[in-house]
Amino acid sequence: MSKKSVISITFLILMVLQGCATNVVYNDKDRKNTAVPLEHGISVFFDRDGDLYPPSAVTMNGSMFTASRDDTATLRAYFEQVSNRRDWESLLTEMSIDNSSNPAEVWSDVQSKLFSNVIESIVKGSNSGNRKIIFLVHGYNNEFKDAESWYKPVEQDIKERAKDRGEQDPYFVRVHWDGLSQTIPISIWTKAQWNGPITGLSLRRILSGLDGKLTKDTQIAMLSHSTGALVVVNAVGDGSAALDCEGNFKERCVAISDTSSIPKLVSNVRLGMLIPAASLDTFNFFNNEQKLPQAIVLGLNKQDFPTNKVFGCIWLGSTCMNVKTEQTCNNLKTTFSNLPVDFYVFEFSNSLNNENQTFMFWETHKVQDQMKRDMWSAFIERVLFLIPDTNFDNLEQCKQKV
Q: Which residue has the higher pLDDT, 351 or 1?
């Protein structure tokens, strides 16, 4: 069989599999197993509409999957089902909301209460921001256990670095969102990239709720992996340049590009994006008309197989930010050259400890594998701390220090 035929058959198989992506939903066991001591942090769960799951005390015994593509895997549709009436009443009781037979009438009130509870937990747990607040955001094709597998070692790594610097333990916010799931995940980027910005708006809502409730010197970091980049970017700014705003995403783009909804607190945020599965134009609409993050730190790996994909980084949803280092640097310089934003780009394939490879010499995609490389320390410390440039001996591919 010719090479051309093999490529054609592979393409057809992947296109068929693209339609088989499954939404990620979080059951009672997931929400209970993630319970962490209040002094350590909090876990938050979002559905594909960006709505918050109820606390683990509210059981959800039915299925969130419906026959309708429009509302499957959404919390609102779940609680609107007559068969889940008991769960709905339990949720209303937990939220101290008067009983209502029609979820549509009070759904916004329920969500407002859930967001308020999360915000209050973060304020209390972080001692009003006197402890550094770290948001951890997984990427596509992550079930609950997949995200937890890297959240825990990263948290331990960060705590040790904070201790070495004489800082208190940070307060962690573990974010779980619907990044979709599929056996052969290379073909679900387009759909996963749809859900990411919606979740980002929900994190923006949390940041807005924290605005004014934390000390003015509160330090916040958001660490994302893979497609989680689209979550954190749209949490702190207008990432709509990378979205199909003239097509199916038009309605969402209005909210994403509303810079008035971006809180002042964003200027305290340092973004850390590891293996960002995002397009080169993701930051293009960031400008001085909106509040801007304190720093953007990218950990790239141009040898990463999933973001290179079989037929190039543009195929099935652009992920070129991670694999085109020079163009990514040029875009950052163009966008932020006259703006008060520090940026740093690290190329993980340049690590001396770079032996964790799969066949064909492609790097593995997991956070744990990137943590084994010597570039990890430079990357994560730039995300967490304000550090003099001399500390890293010019390991950055490019940088701007304001």
A: 351
